[in-house]
Amino acid sequence: MRAKKAQAAAVAAIALFLIFLFFLSAFTSINNMRLFAVKEENYEAQVLAMQKEESLCVAYLPQSSQLVITNTGANPSTIVAVLELPNLRVISMKVTVQPGYSQQVPVDPGYTEYAAVTSLGNSFANTTTCS
Amino acid sequence: MRSKKGVSEYTAVLILTLISLAVMGGLVAYAMSSGSRNASGVLQQEKQLGFEAGQVVKVVFYEQENGGTLFLIEDVGNLPIQISECLQGGAPVSCTLETPPPNSNPVSVIEPNALYALFVNSGPQGVEILTTQNVLIELTSLYSLSSGTPEYAFGTQSYQGQSYLGMTVVAFPISQLNDNSVNCGSPYDTQGYTAVAYVYFTDPHPTVSIVTDDGMEVFYEVAGSNSWNSVFNGNAWHGQGATQYQQTLNVHKNQEYVIAVQWFNACGSGMSALQITNSQLASSFSVTAWLWSSSSYPSYQLVAANPSSVPQGATVEATGSW
Asked: Chain B contact for A93, CB < 8 A?
């Protein structure tokens, strides 16, 4: 009789422990996923805000086939590629330009348009007016 | 009797345990469930929110080619993206993902902060990609090769709103040229600008048209040749009300040229309109506004001697671009 009671108590204890474990792990999982979502949402909001503030001035020097990229914005900009157009050709790179500074990038001569693409997804072409 | 009570307690505990496990199973199923894009589970909803925020694609360039559209895309979010399907107007269309030209190697995952070429067998409008995390991303086409012909019509206040060469005169983007601030008399009698830009011609016989008050001249050279040609040979370089001039050029197609525009306005209102057909700017116009201190205005010989520079003796007033 005592053995049966003890068995029942043990099963009840295991069940309670399992329930506790379940709620603990469920709470941790949901919390982790919520943190993940919040982190990504914050990052997205930051990217969208910085996209609007980013400003580069791009000029092409035909004599030396160089592209002069000047950061006219308030935040550092990372150039991830330069596009040569038409007959699209992409020069991949990773160069950070500090506000107020310029970066010279060698490009292929003979293209009509050159555009610098930043890590924020903005494109700045030498054919557009600098602000 | 006591034995029976013991058995029933044991059974009750077992039943309770089974019920608890069933409830837990139900909760787990609810938390993890994701039958469709409209995820219902708590965990799935949070996960979906995270991926929707972390998988952000921006189209940095697109062009139509070979019956489809080439999108140059960049993942500006925090998470890599794997495309499960491309759609246009909700209907599946075939697409291929590659590294950008000239390499063009097939890839399956879009890593953040790198460019990829996505060729979609459709037009550029209404294209969406569905990621393997069930995130639907619309490819909004923001940037394509500019095709603008060099043309503008600027003037001081009294000219603004008038139409020349099919263009409406607007204020000079450099405000110092726009305010009629040059009085007739010392220290400055004349205001002007020197504007320089790079251009390609898409036809060997483009037409240059100008309307000017007072004088204007357009020069051109093959980039880097330092051999300038005058378009109007000084015929438009004199005091006058708004007058139109037109000239056809003989140039090489698809070769880079430098265009230099000189303009002056002797005291009072003035305007300047320019249009070059069959051409495409390879840079914005770099502009310097200047003041002329001696009487009259710079001679044509003076500006023709160095077309891309401010006339010798002029005072630089402001710089800008348009």
From this structure: no
3-state SS track over B23-57 = HHHHHHHHHHCCCCCCCCCHHHHHHHHHHHHHCCE
How many whole angstroms from its chain centre is CA B15?
A: 69
How far B196 CA lies from chain A's nearest CA (Å)?
12
On whether the CB atoms of residues B303 and B218 are closer than 8 A, the answer is: no
Q: Are B154 and B289 in contact (CB under 8 A)?
A: no
Say which residue, B260 or B181, is predicted with more confidence.
Answer: B260
**Once rounded to an integer, what is the mean pLDDT over residues B226-246?**
95
CB contact under 8 Å between B76 and A47, yes or no, is yes
This complex has an ipTM of 0.79
Q: Is B29 in CB contact (< 8 Å) with chain A?
A: no
- Give, as one character, the DSSP assignment of residue A98: -
Which structure tokens are listed for B181?
């601030």
**Structural contact between residues B46 and B31, judged by C-beta atoms closer than 8 angstroms:** no
Query: What pLDDT does residue B5 have?
Result: 54
Tell me the fold of A55-125. Answer: Immunoglobulin-like (2.60.40)
Nearest Cα to A85, choosing from A52, A49, A43, A113? Answer: A113
Residue B104 in contact with partner chain A when CB distance is under 8 A: no
The runs of H, that is alpha helices, within B40-179 are: 42-54
CA end-to-end span of chain B: 102
Tens of pLDDT along A10-53? 877 887 888 888 888 888 888 888 888 888 888 888 888 888 88
Non-local (6+) Cβ contacts of B101 within 8 A are: A88, A89, A90, B117
Is the CB of residue B280 less than 8 Å away from at least one CB of chain A? yes
Positive/negative CA dihedral, B113, B115, B118, B122 = positive
For chain A, domain boundaries: 1-53, 55-125
Q: What is the percentage of chain A residues whose pLDDT exceeds 70?
A: 95
What pLDDT is recorded for position B4?
52
The neighbouring-strand residues paired with B168 are B163
Q: Between helices A2-53 and B42-54, what is the axis angle to 10°? A: 20
Please state, as a whole number, how many other Cβ atoms lie within 10 Å of the Cβ of residue B97: 21
- The pLDDT value recorded for residue A128 is 66
